[in-house]
Records
---
Amino acid sequence: MLLKDVEVGARLGMARSTTWDCVRAGTLPPPIRRGSKWSRWPSGEIDRIEATITAGASDDELRALVKELIEARTAGKDAA
């Protein structure tokens, strides 16, 4: 399942703009782009981010997870 930015924000308890701030800060993976106006996050990635936040992870730990998720995408693996 793919999630919109509003859905990601609702799952993580943040505003839509904060979701994008977290992408810029590297604490959320960037969405998958499917056109100039269409982007979504794999729900499995957001599940992992949510579990990591709930476990009390630091921003550095979140950045490490984001890096892992992005590497899995580029390696052609299903990180979701």
---
Amino acid sequence: MNQITVLNEVTYKPSAIPVVIPMVYDALFKLNSKLNEESMRKKKQETDVPLWEKYLLTVEEAAEYFGIGQKRIRRIISFDPTAAYLLTVGNRTQIKRVQFEKYIDSMSCV
């Protein structure tokens, strides 16, 4: 028996096996990674709270919610770091959604 048949389609000689095994291992690793990513994505979708229901938003979430760039939001935050619509949690600054909405409503230009 000088040959090995894989999935009844491809036949390899024993000299090719050291090349084929890493390829199969790599393919299985990639498949496993994709399956893990998909399950994590589904799990995250099940537990995510919609942005319009959150009390606090990160800068990234605020940018998505308000349609303003992250740099612009960070610039607005830097103008008044003690504003009523800001909450500092550790070293992160979070935005109180409803109060920031009122602040944005009061502005004519951002």
